[in-house]
Structures are given as structure tokens and as C-alpha cells.
Predict the 3D structure of the following.
Amino acid sequence: MLTPVPTHLLHYVWADALPYIQLAVDESNDKITATDILMKCLDGHYVLWVWVENDKSIAAFVTQIVEYPQRKSLSIPFIGGESHRMDTWFDASLAVFEGYAKEHKCDLVEGYGRRAWLKHIQPRGFRIGYIVFEKDLRSLSQGSSNPNFSKGP
């Protein structure tokens, strides 16, 4: 069963959810840590959800509502769970999230993940909305790698 975790119970549930959230954090290219996610859950920006079966967490999700100028979305930026049990938790979770999104007047559900997620999400009505590209500048030496870059007047 999927359930949102109330803020006052986060510290009791976090240790069980952390391994699943950490799977998604590990793919974030150091943009966020699990502690950052916990803090955003505690301050109400994110909501932690856990799928519990037989008193054990087998999946965890983090959601947030995003208001774009023209749309309102339920975003699921972090998903992790026992992959060999995905048939147990994935479809049922999506149904809950779609209902939750509608209750909050969202007209879109979106998520982020590795390309491997496509085989799971496309048959369920999702499409690729856009591709995120990034370049890590931490390892570049001072100056630009672009010869056409002007440092100004």
C-alpha cells in the first residue's frame, strides 16, 4: 500500500525509505543529497511516499507540486524500490499519484529518471517531454572551453 508520510513521522520512516531514495540521488550528478531531500520534506516542499507490504517498505517516492505559468504538475523527481517487485508497486502507485494530482488540480504528472525507465513508463501513457543535458564545469580550468566566448568589454 502506498501512503504519504506526514511531516511529523518522517524521522521514523526515513531510515526505511533512504535506500530507495538514495538510488535516485546517486543518479543526480551531485545536485542533491538524501539529506537535502529530507530537509525539503520537513519544510513541506517535498512529500515522501512509501509503499509498504507486510510491514516492510519496498519502494519510496518523493513528489512536489510544480506550478508552471500555464500548467500545474505533480512532479515525481525521485523514485526507488525493489526492482524485482516492481510489478507489485509501480502501477498501483501511478494510480494513486494520478488521483492525488487531480485532487490538487494538477493536469500533468511528470518524473525524471534514467533512460531505462522508458520501458516502464511509455506503456503507461507517458512520453518523453524533453531531454535534460548537462555539463559539469567543476573540473574545467579557469576560462571558457568555448573559443567564441567573450569576457566582456
User: Anything to note?
Assistant: The helical segments are 10-25, 34-42, 86-103, 118-121.
